[in-house]
Amino acid sequence: MKILALEKEVPGITDEQFTGKLLKAEARKAWELYQSGILRELYFTADTHEAVLMLECDSADEAPRKLAELPLVKAGLIDFRIMPLIAYPGFERLFGNSSEGEPESEKDWKRDDLEMARKVWGALSPQAKQVYILLLESENGMTLGELAAKLNADVNKILGAFGSPALLCKSHDRQRIERRRSNGRYFIPPETKELFRQLARDDASQNSD
Q1: Helices 190-208 and 126-137 sit at what angle, rounded to 10 degrees?
Q2: Is residue 2 within 8 Å of 82, Cβ to Cβ?
Q3: pLDDT 10s digits, 61-71
Q4: Domain 2-84 is of which CATH architecture?
Q5: Predicted TM-score of the model (pTM)
């Protein structure tokens, strides 16, 4: 998960408290975090000289724990505003609409579309199948972050997993498998879910033989 960390002012702190020893220790720890892959990018704002960090963490909760290891944070001289990021979802519009309430040209999936759906399901990548299986099992839908956490994957990879299936569905003049609600939760409509749930079960049965 990508995390943006923005330095925020700590009241009452003076420049004299930022000693050379502390700043050297800060640079050393930042280098350790960079080498470990946690700290991906590090900048300062041009006008206020405040730190802007891009982190790669397993969860949003990990970010403040890692930042707390910085000597300047330990000393109470700086603090950070933590902002978890998700991938831009707008590229979905290039492959057809997935949000509720928007006009759509392709047809909905029906029970009679089993063989057509089987072709689509059979062409999916293993990662795409994992994503859809989670959505097939979910009652209330899932966010990109929830899907990424379940599969231990980056949210950009989760979003990317939707691209090829959308094109496959479009080639059969059918709506994409998943939809996205206005609250950002991805879900599969009931009739589509019933159709692809059967295919997922068939898949699992074949793999167990």
Answers
A1: 120
A2: no
A3: 899 999 999 99
A4: 2-Layer Sandwich (3.30)
A5: 0.55
